[in-house]
Amino acid sequence: MATRLFEDRAHAAIYQKYRFSPQENLQGVIFSYLEEKRVSPGQLAVDVGCGSGQSTRILAKHFEKVVGTDISEAQIEEARRAPQPPNVSYLVCPAEDLPFEDGSVDLVTAFAAVHWFDGPRFLREVDRVLKPSGCVVFSSYNRHMQLCYKDCTDELTEIFREIQDQLFTFRNEKIKLVENDYQEIFDSLPFQEKKRMTDIFDKIPLSVADVIGYIQSLSPYRHYLEVQPEEAKSLLQNTERRFLETMGVSSRDTQLELRTKHICILGCKSS
């Protein structure tokens, strides 16, 4: 059964503002694979569970047409408000019922999303819409992140992990798929040609305010905010204060670096 989160308008607006697009090293792995499989350049790419479109737009240079899909109308509205390449469009639909003809799609992607879907139904739908020799990319960052600033990287990362641990009790059970590095999803992918990578690292420049916004966008935080709103707001305020004190700065616009570790499943349907 699919899990529906991230759908209210306030959450969608936060998602658009603070979620980051796939970064340089992850993109390099993905597009090298697609070129190897002769899928890039291609005709049609579909980004499923696209949210507010950060991942959808990176596909535009590599395909004649790119369609982002999401079950949330609010997320799709946010995606459409953002500046778009002319070959990118969006649709509201479930991941398990894609409005594309059999064998019509060159690439299906899902960034930080596939774990929320009804896995068996979604993978059957992927197999249906993909062309022979079409490809899939399923990726997510996991909890192993570092916050880096001058000589206080260890202290900042420890604070960040404390917050992750505190929010852990509010997580949805489907997060276990991410914690297991998508092993179950990889095993279920019905293609002989497939591989799973767990050692792709990227560096993302963010401000302290951006890091706090990213925490706000996480599904466990949204659940925490629903059940204990004052405690959740206090957590953000205290976290920002601790970051600034540890860094020895006063401005929430101060830049630091978020280092991420990605899981990535790459697969190619037989011809």
Commentary on this structure:
There is one protein chain. Strands 1, 2, 3, 4, 5, 6, 7 and 8 form an eight-stranded mixed β-sheet that branches. By secondary structure, this protein is of the alpha/beta class. β4, α4 and β5 form a beta-alpha-beta unit. The longest helix has 19 residues. It contains ten helices and eight strands.
Q: What structural class should be given to the helix and strand makeup?
A: alpha/beta
Distinct helical segment count:
10
What characterizes the major β-sheet? 8 strands, mixed
Count the E strands. 8
Task: Determine the mean pLDDT.
Answer: 93
Shape: globular
In helices, the fraction of residues equals 25-40%
% residues in beta strands: 25-35%
What is the string of helix and strand elements? HHEEHEEHEEHHHEHHHE
Straight-line distance between termini: 30 Å
Low-confidence stretches: none
